[in-house]
Design a protein that fits this description.
4 strands, two-stranded antiparallel ribbon, 153 residues, single chain, mainly alpha
Length: 153
């Protein structure tokens, strides 16, 4: 297994290659490699797919990054920090990973939420099978009753 330093060098090299593929030398001078790499990640998250080479030109000067700021809702790439770009990217990717609840799992969650000792129970569904995490041993009777009382459509 490569050392941490070796993995870091590989990551850095991949970042430089990616930026060289999709940004001009002028962009590299203007924004820097770290900011461009973060911006490319944001664009990929926005598109929902990896960028392909050769890409359509990316108008980096027109790119707007959403920020949590009372003054403005978005910032241009030259005014946004790398941390703000990564935070905006994280919001896009975490929302896309979240799958909508099925009617059955939503009904079970609603029924469990009515019992105070079961409010922290997590329900997940995969391939038609429900799984539960965090059911307290002392609340098993209430858990069974809540499942029986769930109005599953």
């Amino acid at each position: 297994m490569p050392s941490t330093a070796a993995r870091r060098r590989v990551r850095t090299a991949n970042r430089y290659v990616r930026v060289a593929k999709f940004a001009s030398p002028r962009d590299e001078e203007l924004y820097g490699v770290a900011k461009l790499d973060a911006a490319l990640g944001f664009v990929e998250a926005k598109l929902g797919t990896k960028l392909e080479h050769p890409p359509l030109p990316i108008a980096l000067d027109r790119l707007r990054i959403p920020v949590d700021n009372a003054e403005t809702a978005t910032k241009s790439l030259d005014h946004a920090s790398v941390a703000e770009i990564r935070k905006a990217t994280g919001k896009l990717t975490s929302a896309s990973r979240k799958k909508p609840k099925t009617a059955a799992s939503a009904a079970v969650e609603k029924s469990l939420a009515r019992v105070s000792s079961l409010k922290d129970v997590r329900v997940s569904e995969r391939n038609g099978i429900l799984s539960f995490v965090g059911v307290p041993l002392g609340a098993l009777d209430g858990f069974a009753r809540a499942l029986i009382n769930a109005k599953i459509p």
